[in-house]
Predict the 3D structure of the following.
Amino acid sequence: MIEGTEFSSIPGFPEFFNNFLKNDNFITDIFSDFSLNISHSYIELSQSEDNLFTIIKPFFAGGTLSNYFKILSLISYLKCNKIGKLIIDDLCIDNMQLSGVKLLDENMDTVEMHFPSDSTKENRKLIKYRDCPADSIDQIENIISILSGFKHYNDIKLKLFEIYEPGKTIIYAFKNYLQYLFENENIDYIYLSELLNSEIVDFFITDELNNPGKFTDIVSQSFSYISKKGLNINPKTSIYNLEYIRDNELLKFTADINSLDKLIPAVMLKTFLIDILLPGKKICSPSEIGEEILLYPLFEHFGFNPPTLIPRYSATILPSDIINNLKKKHQDNLIFNLIFPDGMLQERHTSILYFIAAVGIEKFIKITSELINYNPDKHYSIRI
């Protein structure tokens, strides 16, 4: 059973996101009388408008429901496009987030662990160069032991053992895990590092080096303008919107580095370049839609078409067996903890492993895939 609730009644969703859902012309209306105080810079780039894509980070075992719902959203639009492009960001570091796995114990308290278990905030090694550790099986067994009472615990444990094999790169294992979940879907998996291997990216990196602050100035003008209209979207920019790779580590750019093959675009410049390399429809999270609003004036400035933004699905999963068990114990407060663990919306908190172990991969995918029949303009509750 699937029921929808307006986003305005769900905590954690910004006002600009609610306005975006209510008005198809929300972004163009915002900038209807806006003009940049900077000369135009047109660039030649052949653009077709038939791309359908989204970007995800390589969280362990697929990550949280929000990652999963992004891919479901991509699948829902495959009837309009022959293929969906799933961009895997392999140019990021863990920062104790990609490796994190949050599960709920029988009291609905959060148990958080990491794979690999030696992950630290100080580790700057790009995820594309990190390997599954030699004791992967022991680490995985320790992580998911909290789920040992669930019916499908052994199935998911064996699949993780198979995919996160010692010596394989974590990014390769992540891709294989997604292919396992969505094996029948027409999805093209693309690593971000491959997508950004482009002359147009080199052009913008060179422009960023030669004109420090130019890109940031445009974003700042956009931010200042929308702030006066009551929209609070913080820009993520700096004088140089670049990062630097050295010895497979991602480092903050400094002005004395100028080797193009070691520089990559950072944050909002990276988002902008992905958009112009893949013009068309883009599946976005609420925060990504905010970023796109700030970037909107840049497309006209550089002579490109902005992407058509499609919000990803948003939902709370309610496993019937777990809820019925909690009700027998008359512990309604624990049901609330299932929906808002640690005060966060469930989709941003709990690993999909929790739900797959509870009901099985086939049932989980079958029931959640029914979201495809709904519009992504509400937050849904799904009983499985």
In short: Residues 14 and 286 are 8 Å apart (CA to CA). The radius of gyration is 22 Å. The chain has a mean pLDDT of 91.
